[in-house]
Hints:
767 residues, alpha/beta, Serine Threonine Protein Phosphatase 5, Tetratricopeptide repeat, 7-stranded parallel beta sheet, 8% strand, globular, disordered N terminus
Amino acid sequence: xxxxxxxxxxxxxxxxxxxxxxTLYRQALGLLRAGNWPAALHCCQQAIEQLRQDDPPDAPxxxxxxxxxxxxxxxxxxxxxxxECWAESLNWQDSTVVxxxxxxxxxxxxxxxxxxTPPPAPEMDNPQALRLAYQAALLAPQDAPGLTRLGTLxxxxxxxxxxASYLARSLEIDPAQAQAASNLGxxxxxxxxxxxxxxxxxxxxxxxxxxLHIQINLANALAQCGELAAAIDMHARVLARxxxxxxxxxxxxxxxxRRHDYAQAQTYLDQALVLAPQHSGALSAQAxxxxxxxxxxxxxxxxxxxxxxxxQVAHHPRRLGSALRMLGRHAEAMAAYQRAxxxxxxxxxxxxxxxLALQYSPGYTPEQVFAWHRxxxxxxxAPLPLPRHFPHSRQPERRLRVGWVSGDFNAHPVAYFVLxxxxxxxxxxxxxxxxxxxxxxxxxxxxLQAHVDHWRRVRGLTHEELARQIAHDRIDILIDLSGHTGGxxxxxxxxxxxxxxxxxxxxxxxxGLSRIDWRLSDPYGDxxxxxxxxxxxxxxxxxxxCCYQPMVRMPELRDSPDYAVQPTPALANGHITFGCCxxxxxxxxxxxxxxxxxLHAAPQARLLLExxxxxxxxxxxxxxxxxxxxxxxxGRLQLEDRHPAWQYKRYHQIDICLDPFPxxxxxxxxxxxxxxxxxxxxxxxxxxxRLGVSLLNAVGHAEWxxxxxxxxxxxxxxxxxxxxxxxxxxxxxxxxxEASPLMDAERxxxxxxDALRGMWRDWCAQG
Length: 767
């Protein structure tokens, strides 16, 4: 059996403790609340040792530290040690509370010395059960069943950290306890310690291969570690034995949704809802199935109903917020996320989702957006211990160990921009470590793996565990590639596991963390003065913030005639087709108003919009109604649903692309330029509103950048005025782009290497 821990593993920073007894005392209190008795005791003992050296000792502070040391011993079932600490605490300062603790310890010690056996275990729902279980464990600290019972009761009281400590100790005494192993795994799952849970449960299953509870808990652990196929297989084993188990049906449906097999997911959901029509988990999964298939309206209605039925369940408003955000209803989405945060204030992912909605929302000043982001750091970074001392060698020119953290190392735009950099980055200068937090792997993952020295699959690790892994790898520079997007690990960065930390690419704004030192940008996305809107320092790459490589997902088709630049469609159509192939959530009412103004100024023109989910009647009707408000007839709009096979070919139908705002296109802009289509973009104040500014400057077409709405319309009309000239632009765009800094991987990698080296030299100089 795998080695089991007697208590939750301490934080990475626990081993490097501050010198102040007061700081040690506060840290001990936090560790006691977290159920980490050994680490709490270590803090207390260090503080006590320091305080004893004073002449005379500070009596109140020494008494307080001794009292907490007694508590740590008590939870560790060390009665005699508890008594000793509490007795000495009272010698320094009288306390009614400590006297009560000491009296209880004396009574239990007397019973223990008299050889008294623990009383029969009461029923689990007995209000006194937990107190009696504690007493029984103190009287018989080597009684494995008693420790298992105590751990189980603590889990029922949602005290999973404490539960894990006693369940692990029970297994150390008697490994042959299926219930203890299963419950230990479940307590770790509840604390999001997925990798540890998986290890414990896999070993338990080896001993008890037919135990249903172990199978169920292991399936959930595998799912959280990103092992979706294995999790489905395990749940299927359970379902074969319990074909009418609603929870298993819901679990299988949720996993199939994550695999995008919506037909199979619906089969499981239909079975579950026949068995239990009002089952909350089944209804929530049904909303997820609709939401991911872009059936937004029924998903929203169902999630509102669930939220009213269960107002204290945070995932209902959290999912509601995501559905509203995908539909472009950002104010409503932010309100839903705020409700979820009110229920679970510690959920950093919900706060990040709120920030994503904020990115798309017009009407906020850059200062307001910055304040929201800084709030993330104040909430999730500031309470953490200060960064530890780093033992790294301060040699400015040595080979550097660079860590890259992302949840998108697969067929995702982030990977598309990472691949050309990694393929050209000097591996003599830099040793790369990829920390993959994604759910899935694919052919793009395999291509990425070929360009790094070490690949770490870390989906199942907690933030503390990942921070320890990064520290163990002796990473010099750690780079965040996610920001506040899905699968991010910003709470890991908040623990400062590497001496230099930087953010790049995945998120178009500040992280809000002061412990991320740098943000990589360029002079166009972040011009002079932008520093005031970042918690990070800006390192501006000299030409452009990224490097583009087309068709990463399907490189074998790059030279296919289907993807060659074609004549501008107006030559055949007799009218201009404006277009946008972007996220539905970016099509705000302000965007529609400006596009309507353009269409009125060009009465023969059409507008093609490729948007995910627009084929659904409710979504189409909603969008058409928003244009109708501005007098645009549905006949002038061509609405197309998004499909991966059309990622590039849709641009064959568009003469001029229109950038949305305040969140502009990124990957889509690179794609359309490569396909020869010009872009009109509106320059905003924030990086998220200036991606088009950066990319157009990189390819030498700054004249398509509008300073205001009037200029936006004028530029679009100017391009549309002469179809022959528009076609000439189209034919020369791809060669121009391929010769530009935007597609020169070697050149970009050199600039990036200079940035890494410069950041490292800066840190070395601080020593």
